[in-house]
TrEMBL record:
<protein>
    <submittedName>
        <fullName>Uncharacterized protein</fullName>
    </submittedName>
</protein>
Length: 176
């Protein structure tokens, strides 16, 4: 009788673990499907953890020195997708953003009213285009931000993103 109760308790614990793992997996899938345009004004550990899972943790001091910086200069926004545009028109300030490089992606951060928003873009979803001579377009799925690149430092930063993305991309079948 005692052995049977032990077996039942063990099975119940295993079932609870399986259920919690299934819930965690479902949350990850839901998170992956959700857009990563998030409000980062407040210190929320859950959002920070999701961002770290998506694009990696910030570079260490040594890595930032080796890369000669992991953040962009101030970037003036010229055009955006409708979701981001609806946030930016809430105030009359200049539309400015900056880009932070991470190990597995970038974070485009901008402010609206008194809130800070981030568009989290992993490298596998990142598309960078240079449309005009002095404009870069950052695309992720249906979100985009176009920024003015009127200084040489901005061109160097975007070239750094492209080089880092290419150096750390997984090997493609065509490369073999």
């Amino acid at each position: 009788m005692l052995f049977r109760e032990f077996q039942l308790n063990k099975c119940a614990k295993i079932k609870r673990i399986e259920v919690s793992v299934a819930r965690l997996y479902a949350q990850i899938l839901i998170f992956r499907k959700k857009e990563m345009l998030v409000n980062i004004s407040y210190n929320r550990p859950a959002i920070s953890e999701k961002i770290n899972l998506e694009v990696g943790k910030p570079f260490t001091l040594f890595e930032r020195v080796k890369l000669k910086g992991s953040g962009s200069p101030k970037l003036h926004i010229t055009s955006t997708s409708i979701d981001i545009h609806n946030l930016l028109i809430l105030d009359n300030n200049a539309n400015i953003c900056n880009v932070e490089m991470r190990g597995n992606g970038i974070i485009v951060m901008f402010r609206s009213i008194l809130e800070t928003y981030a568009l989290v873009i992993p490298y596998y979803k990142l598309n960078l285009y240079k449309g005009k001579a002095e404009e870069y377009s950052i695309y992720k799925d249906h979100h985009f931000i176009k920024v003015k690149a009127d200084k040489p430092g901005i061109h160097k930063f975007f070239q750094k993103i492209i080089d880092y993305k290419n150096d750390n991309a997984p090997t493609q079948i065509e490369d073999l």
